[in-house]
Amino acid sequence: MTLYMIGIGLWDETDITVKGLEAVEQCDKVFLESYTSKLGVDVKELEEFYGKKIILANRDLVEKNADEILNPAKTKNVALLVIGDVFGATTHTDIYLRAKEKDIEVIVINNASILNAVGIVGLELYKYGKTTSIPYHNENVETPYDFIKQNKAAKMHTLCLLDIDSESDKYMTVKEAIEYLLRVEDKRNEKIFTKDTKCIGVARLGSPEPKIVYATAGELLKVDFGEPLYSLIVPSELHFMEEDALKRWVD
Asked: How far apart are CA 159 and CA 177, in angstroms?
């Protein structure tokens, strides 16, 4: 039979594609990968809209006990729902490869992700450099700062994805991300990221009412971005059209 890996978009139950919904309706078991991102609605909303019982797949199930997802797909149609797009995390690539090793047919159905939804900000998508993630446990971590440095040198923008701890219902805020980058700057004093660095704080991209603010890092420390999820963008050199687009988001 088949493993369907289905991107379900960024916000609510209606973000799934028609193709994705038709695939879910054919499935005997439906899993939702629930630890790398968060929707703006409860899983019950998905169950009512899809007409299926949904099994939450936490980190242990996906990373350590993936056979509980894969083995049923040898004899049944199984769906693995992924918030955003299917390959938004290396975990999902691992599931895909392991299914192929077991000779399980895999059908991938794509959807919107943070990597294209961020286009609403107004920066050209082709001018983004390496995307980085800022983790909670970052006392000895400087890689995100280095990525910003490298991207700036190449005149590329940096998208910083902020950590989540779904089991504790914790979501790194724009303020926490900026405080982390300022700590690294204080240690290295390279003038890569200071309180005067212009940044874009974003929350709830893909929702009907995202929060987007363009300001200095110091100013963003004081902004209430409301409910999660959050990201931080550090622009490099701006084209005049990008400058005009960012004016919409000056708080």
From this structure: 12
Task: List, in order, residues 6 or more apart from 236 with CB less than 8 Å away.
Answer: 127, 129, 151, 152, 154, 155, 156, 157, 158
pLDDT digits (tens, 9 = 90+) for 104-150: 999 999 999 999 999 999 999 999 999 999 999 999 999 999 999 99
Task: Look at the pTM and tell me if it is higher than 0.85.
Answer: yes
Q: H or E segment at 219?
A: helix 217-220
Cite the residue boundaries of each domain of the chain with CATH code 3.30.950.10: 115-249
- Residue 41, judged by CB atoms within 10 A of its CB (0-12, 13-18, 19+), counts as middle
- CATH 3.30.950.10 given to domain 115-249: yes
Rounded Cα distance, 72 and 83, in Å: 22
Question: CA 31 to CA 83: how far, in whole Å?
Answer: 11
- The sign of the CA dihedral 27, 35, 63, 8 is positive
